[in-house]
TrEMBL record:
PROSITE patterns: ASX_HYDROXYL, EGF_1, EGF_2, EGF_3, EGF_CA, LAM_G_DOMAIN. GO terms for biological process: cell differentiation; Notch signaling pathway. Residues 110-298, 336-513, 578-748 form the Laminin G domain. This is Crumbs homolog 2 isoform X1.
Amino acid sequence: MSRITTAVIWSGIYLLAGLVCSIDIDECEDSPCENGATCVDVVNDYLCICPAPVLDAVAWGGKNCSIKLEGCKEHRCQNEAVCIPTYEENIHNYICKCQPGYYGKDCSIQTTFSFTSNGYILYDLHTNNRTKRGTEEITGQLRVRFRTTLPDMVLMYQGNEDNYLILELYDGVLHLEFWRNSTHLVLSDHRLDDGYWHEVEVLLDEYVQLILYHDNCTNGMCSKKQHVGTNYSLELPESFDTLYIGGLVEEVMLNNTLSRQNFTGCMGDLIIDFRIQLPHNFTRLSQMEFGCNKTDWCHPNPCHHGALCIDLWTRNKCECIRPYKGPTCTQEYTPGTFFREDMPSYAMFTVPQNIGHNFNVSTFIRTLKLDGLLMAIVNGSTVYFRLFLQNGRLHVATLTAPPLVFKENLADGRTYFVNVSVKQGLVTITHLKAEIILGEVPNLPNSFWGELYVGGVPVEEATIEQPGGYFKGCLQDVRINNHHLEFFKLETEDVDMENTSYPVVSSNITQDCISDNTCDTGPCKNEGTCTVTWNDFTCKCPSSFTGKTCEEPLWCEKKPCPSETMCEDVPGGYVCLANATFLGGHSVIFSSNVSTDQQLTYVSLNFRTRDKSAVLLKASKDVDYISIAIHDGHLQLKLQTGNSVEHVQFVGTIEISDATWHRLVIKMDDPSEQLSKWIIQLDNVINIIPEGRAGSLNFLRKDASIVLAENYTGCLGQVTIGGIHLLFTDNPFTQPFIRGAGMMQLGCKGSDVCSKKPCLNNGECRDLFNAFSCTCRVGWEGQHCEVDINECKLNNCTHGWCENLVGDYKCICDAGYTGRNCETDVDDCQNHQCQNGGSCIDGVNSYTCKCSASYAGNYCQWPFPPEKCNKSNTCLNGGVCNSGIWGANCTCRPGFSGRRCEVNINDCESNPCLNGGTCQDSVNNFKCICISNYSGVHCEKGIGVSVFPLPLLGIAVPVLCGVLLLLVIVVIFMVVTARKRRQSEGTYSPSQQEVAGARLEMDSVLKVPPEERLI
């Protein structure tokens, strides 16, 4: 071999080796890792990543994760630490994963500490060998866990009064302040004064960064940072070697903070410059305690009357709801009763402070008196501010401006909390936890002093206007701004004297909220019993009287009204209420004579009709009018009163001409207004406020004509105007509305529409008030049940034809189908006759047999291929073989069956032998072997004992019967012979003569031939 050839060969070998060695062999291909481990291929090796240990589950280790780790069997982890087994260099061991608050190999060292007063820890970074680092490294780091319930406190302070880094809670959120570049970072999304553990970290390099580790943060971390420059690792002042944890000593440094308060709560897992700091190693500290012992001061809630309990870590505080006070809100500010038993009363205070033009006044008020002065701030003869009631409404007045009015009635005897605020001339009132703007007043002077009168002013101060006179009722917890105005000296020790004032002068104020003795004058008449309620009374009346003072007789107790009417007691008498029926052209007219003290602010009426157009009520006087009508089946209202240039007009959308009872109420939205919106209420559920304003219906009080039911067919029920009934019945008392001309019928009665039996085919007629409805029997429809329903149009007979019946139908199904609608194909295979394992296939009214390969025929009864006689088929027991299209067939002798007549039919199968006889089968026959006393073919004859008393008689009777039978036979034979003889005598019989003659003639002539023999 030449050198060139050798070189080429080695070059190929090297090239091939290069190609082969470029492929990394996958050592994981053989799945060497066990127990669910993950295999990672490396160069010339593999790594098995064993499943992470699970509590109380088997852990695995070793090269292939095949070794059961047993290091935690006798571990020493404490304080609920998690034991993690390890396996290194063939040695089982473990490590302890500590819970927060613990440290050490076995988690036995506690890292938590707490402050309950002005404590702190002073940490000297220089003493603890802190070294400067490169500019690319973090200069400073602090990480700590804490929990507290207080919103404002210092967590960490580094530096001095001039150069500092502050970490604190303010208003419950984290703040970080760095003196360089006025850096201020706030994490305001999460309040941290909730008593739970929270973890925070501060990093300082080219940036100052604030990090909060919180479950509600993105990826569990909220952070903010700001660039503060470079090389701070070289430029930090020496004062930064001093680090305060939890508080400060010097007031000047505390003034740099927002919270201005040392930390109260627990801390733990303190890490400074990435080194854990253990509490037992702290040397410079004050009022620090090891561990974290916290009392839950608010569970159970010690505060009463709905007060909020605030956990202040070392104690609790109750935020009482007014008018309650005290450590647990069990006490109450003492109310004062004014004008008790109509004695003028008041209290005069010195205005407690320079209240300025922004202030608020608040109090609890309870009164039944509609008018009275609540409060006035006076300087000489000038009244700067005044609160008073007028007609039960609160009025706010300043200087000479017209008063602002709060429209809610406060004079109903209930207790209300009222808070009036004046800010830059804007007046608001807080009522039922809602702030309502009353309006604006002229600005008060920036500062004013003077006297503050509550409940009234003394008689000698005649120059001070007192709208409504003295206030009568109770006032409690009166405050101007946050200053308490107390009517009586407080005896409790928790009085805030700085914010509490007492009257300079007071007169006739009774301590507590006490009622007048309202029963003292004996207000109840007719032997009624009086009971004092607060500043009022109630009378328990005898059964025949009613009213506030039992002054009204109950006329209805005597049942004065006719039976078809309903009695109702009214002031001054009674009324008999009844429905009325109107027919078309008849209406009724009322004239009015109502007291001028009566306010007519609403109309109500009940009606029932089918009319599409009619007038229910109309009235007019001068330019004022009201019209309530039905237009196209809907409600129509027209109203113009009170000299208004606009009018109220409404057309409804709800059908009311449906012959059902409807109740209509039309009323003023605000009866106290001269012109008001009006509300339409239909059937007690629909409230509509149409456009326009109008006054009251007081124009109907005198000399007005009120027309009811014009062109109306239907019924009217109770009709009232201002609560006064317009009666359809006579009444012995003078009525405010006097019925005049008109025709009507008492009661609500429609035409007897069912008397003519309009419903055919036994349909049921229902009276629908001037209309009827037919409820038809099954199979009929139409307004009169006159139409026979063709049920065949509604129902399809799928495989058949339909026969219509009365209220029903019947399907006549095609052959092979069944069901109500001939929808079901009859399964003809249910009783099939397929033999020899043939499968039945259902068809329509038929079936076919699907035979196996060895059989054929309609029922798979013939072998296939067909058999032939004397070759493949032999009939047994004398059977005859016949050839057919399906092959040989045996016709069996009687007594045999089977394809080849091989079966001897068991003639005993039907049990033919009676009376206990034994059957013996034979060919096409049987024999019965009878027991004693029975005989016959079927053992049907009994051989019993003779019934005759003598043996001779038992023999004689059968013999005699036999002789008689023989005689009968002889007589019959003789009669037959005689008849035959008579037939041949005296009659010519050619046949007989021929036979007789021939015999005689031939006997004489013919000869018998001689016998021939073979010789």
